[in-house]
Design goal:
- The protein has three helices and five strands; from the N terminus they run βααββββα.
- By secondary structure, it is of the alpha+beta class.
- It has one domain.
């Protein structure tokens, strides 16, 4: 595999990635019985927390070992796509949750 820096492709892929994470969180919360505003709020909070961890804004450390995630995506032609800096999926959470819930995903 070859590392390819492509900010535009990386941006598109991380938006698709966080959308899938949000959909999976929403689905599990619906299965647990949440609905309406409570569902949307909890989906947002969990997704933001997960995204912040992925984006290395959460400062993970255990036993003196720092964990520094670096998000990349594998393309169909076996390239690793990176944006040239830390990911910023957390910046898309509010907008994506808004889109999902405005399309009738409240239950």
């Amino acid at each position: 595999m070859r590392l390819k820096t492509d900010a535009d492709q990386f941006d598109q892929l991380q938006q698709l990635f966080i959308r899938e994470i949000i959909e999976q969180i929403r689905l599990k919360l619906v299965q647990a019985g949440l609905r309406g505003k409570e569902l949307q709020d909890l989906t947002t909070h969990i997704a933001f927390s997960v995204a912040s961890t992925i984006d290395d804004t959460a400062r993970i450390e255990s036993g003196g070992v720092q964990v520094r995630p670096c998000l990349t995506f594998v393309t169909e032609d076996d390239q690793l796509v990176h944006g040239g800096e830390n990911s910023y999926t957390h910046e898309y959470v509010a907008d994506v949750v808004g889109e999902i819930f405005s399309n009738g995903a409240a239950d």
